[in-house]
Amino acid sequence: MKFSSVNRGLPAGNPIANVFVIVVGALAIGVSIVLGFVAFVVLGSIVAVLAAVLGLRMWWFNRKLRAQGQQTGEASRPHPGGVIEGEYHVLDADEDHRDS
């Protein structure tokens, strides 16, 4: 059974009830907007504080790593040319089998 209404405007025929519905609806919309804005500000503040804490932690950690690198001296730093000196020994797979 389908119900349809010709008058799809305000629900009540009483003008006082219509005004009450409009006022309560406007207040509900206003409160929703204000609460949404407050929630946005609170979440934004939390994100900003977490970003600041993380940035401060990264800065402190990098500063600590740089200070630790300076304490080890210049000998551990690679040469500007990018050449790393070292020694190596070639191990032949056949030698390992002969020793066993």
Can you walk through the features of this model?
The structure is a single chain. With 100 residues, this protein is mainly α. 65% of the residues lie in helices and 0% in strands. It has two helices and no strands.
Keywords:
mainly alpha
Counted by DSSP, the helix tally is 2
Q: Biggest β-sheet: count, sense, barrel?
A: none
Rg (C-alpha, Å): 37 Å
Structural class: mainly alpha
Helix-strand pattern: HH
Strand content: under 5%
If you average the pLDDT, what whole number results?
Answer: 82
Uncertain regions spanning at least 5 consecutive residues: none
The helical percent reads: 55-70%
Shape: elongated
Give the tally of β-strands: 0
Distance between the termini: 94 Å
Quick structural overview:
The chain has two helices and no strands. With 100 residues, the protein is an all-alpha fold.
Question: How is the secondary structure organized here?
Answer:
Layout lengths: L14 H58 L20 H7 L1
